[in-house]
């Protein structure tokens, strides 16, 4: 397709570069041989501490178990703090809702009072107007009788008494409903406290059972290394201060 020119390689230049590369490789190998590190001669010395291998293994095993229980305690502490935070938030929400309910109840009372005042005023006005109309429709009397009019208030009294009884019945039913709701709330609160006590007791029993299982397992594993059958360690001061049992299961 296209013309090209083939240039033959320069054999002299290639051989020269090859000789230089071989010489550099020989120099590198010679330098490595000259700078090779010699044998290390150290005086023998005893390594490790005063504890035996069995004691070190036992101590390592105890530290591992302690770290596991520390993680477990941290998780329980985190769960407890989270639960307390949630309960505090729930109580705050309840307080806010209670305040809103109180405000609504106070607003309802004020509106009811305003309606009652308006009703009483309108009722008094209508009653006065009716009495005036009746007074105008009555036959004329002498001056003494007109100075002291005394219309018969029997119908108005019966109507007013009936309305008052209806209002009293409504108030009584409302108070009974409020008392019933309050009693239900107290029962729910008591039931919640009982359930919380039951959950706490179950959690404590489960934790006590897990601790006993852990002590029994640790006792069975540590019996060949100088631990009594009673489940307590012998001379735990060598592991540093008080026993881990008193620190983690107090």
Automatic annotation (TrEMBL):
Originating species: Chelydra serpentina (Snapping turtle)
Stretches with biased composition (Basic and acidic residues): 169-205
Gene that produces this protein: EPSTI1
Region (Disordered): 34-55, 101-126, 163-205, 221-250
Name of the protein in question: Epithelial stromal interaction 1
């Amino acid at each position: 397709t296209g013309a090209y020119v083939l240039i033959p390689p320069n054999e002299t230049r290639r051989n020269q570069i090859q000789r230089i590369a071989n010489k550099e490789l020989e120099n590198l190998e010679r330098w490595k041989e000259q700078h090779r590190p010699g044998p290390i001669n150290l005086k023998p010395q005893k390594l490790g501490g005063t504890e035996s291998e069995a004691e070190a293994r036992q101590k390592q095993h105890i530290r591992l178990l302690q770290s596991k229980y520390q993680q477990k305690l941290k998780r329980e502490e985190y769960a407890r703090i989270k639960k307390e935070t949630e309960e505090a938030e729930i109580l705050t929400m309840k307080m806010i809702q209670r305040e809103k309910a109180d405000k609504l109840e106070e607003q309802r009372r004020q509106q009811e009072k305003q309606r009652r005042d308006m009703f009483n005023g309108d009722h008094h006005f209508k009653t006065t107007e009716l009495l005036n109309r009746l007074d105008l429709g009555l036959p004329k009397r002498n001056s003494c009788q007109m100075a002291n009019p005394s219309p018969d208030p029997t119908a108005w009294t019966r109507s007013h008494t009936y309305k008052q009884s209806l209002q009293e019945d409504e108030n009584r039913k409302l108070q009974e409903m409020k008392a019933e709701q309050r009693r239900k709330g107290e029962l729910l609160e008591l039931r919640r406290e009982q359930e919380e006590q039951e959950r706490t007791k179950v959690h404590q029993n489960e934790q006590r059972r897990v601790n006993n299982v852990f002590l029994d397992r640790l006792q069975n594993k540590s019996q060949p290394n100088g631990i009594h059958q009673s489940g307590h360690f012998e001379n735990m001061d060598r592991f540093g201060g008080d026993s881990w049992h008193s620190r983690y299961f107090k």
